[in-house]
Amino acid sequence: MATFAKSSFNAAIYAAARPTYSPKLFEYIHEYYKNQPLGSSARWDRAVDVGCGTGQAASHLDGVFKEVVCVDPSAGMLDKAREFLLNKPRSTLGQASTRTSATDATANTKFTFAQGSAEDIPSTQEGSVDLLIAAQACHWFDWQKVWPEAKRVLRPQGGVAAFWVYGESRLSSFPSLTPRITEFWQGTDRGSTTSVGAYFQRPGRTVLERLLVDVPAPSAVLPGDVGLVDFQRLYFTDDKRDIPDISLTDAPQIVHPTIMKVDWRWIDVLGYLRTSSALHSYHEAFPEDKKHSNDTRFLERDLADIEVRGNEMVDPSMVGGGDIAVRFWKDLREGVQNELGQGAGLFDKVMVEWPVAMLLVRRG
Asked: What is a single molecular function from GO for this protein (predicted)?
């Protein structure tokens, strides 16, 4: 996570190239939240997004809660979240319908921002939070501190925490390429010319790859304490083999179909690869890789496509070079070309999907 806090990490590029979250994910969260304990009713006063990053998840709470507090340890990420959330069009409140009805939606959500962590949420009073979320951040958490902190800030008798991550990407229609994808992201050789896996920060990345099965249940951290109840582990995947340990008994394990997928152009896939924190760290260790000679596969065709489709606003320099990301990207395109005989052009589209794991818990 320290990579995101470095001044050399470009939060704007990161925000532009990452996948966004399906509204269906928030429908699950809101349904769980609305199912309040007997004698309680859902309140829509305050939500907190810890590890908010660029504000993508928090934006889904616009029009749902009166106040959304965005917390992140990185000043650069907070700046980007502030820019995104305060300047985004407010003409539609599409997520509000997941509350009760559009008529009681909150028209003017107040976004506030604070630098801090999930282990010690700043300026948050005890029992003041209706919904606590963390999107693609909870694999970094110290759960011996986060579960007690969640208990402290959540509203008694109904406040909810929802923490989720998306795991390893894959090309939906090309399972034959999954081993190459796994090698690139999970290789362990720090001197590799084909993998950046050794440059992810561990153990956080491992927790993500294993879809949060290594996160202890609240009851394991707070034994005998009924402060956090109704703990659930949810998975959104079409392949149960994504889940390393489906036999966990500390919570119901509920599997739903894949909901995080996107139809990307190949140039978009390259943009996504460029946002990897591991790639950033790899190039700090091997700056000469950025000057690697051109990988000429597809290059002439790509440059011709860019010239023909000038309105796509793609910088030709994006597809040149031969660094580790470009080599991997072209390995995938070559695999698709070999399998189909087509579909590997710069502006051709390919379906990318990610399994999602989510933890839900309620304040007792």
From this structure: S-adenosylmethionine-dependent methyltransferase activity
- pLDDT over 90, % of the chain: 81
Rounded CA separation 237/180 (Å): 20
Q: Cβ-count burial of 122 within 10 angstroms (0-12 exposed, 13-18 middle, 19+ buried)?
A: exposed
Cβ(230)–Cβ(361) below 8 Å: yes
What local confidence, expressed as pLDDT, does residue 39 receive?
84
Taking the domains of the chain in order of start, what are their residue ranges? 2-168+200-261+353-363, 170-199+263-352
With 50 as the cut, is the pLDDT of residue 103 above it? no
Query: What digits encode the pLDDT tens for the residues 276-287?
Result: 999 999 999 999
Query: Is 3.40.50.300 the CATH number for 2-168+200-261+353-363?
Result: no
Report in angstroms the alpha-carbon separations of 73 from 63, 77, 332: 25, 8, 35
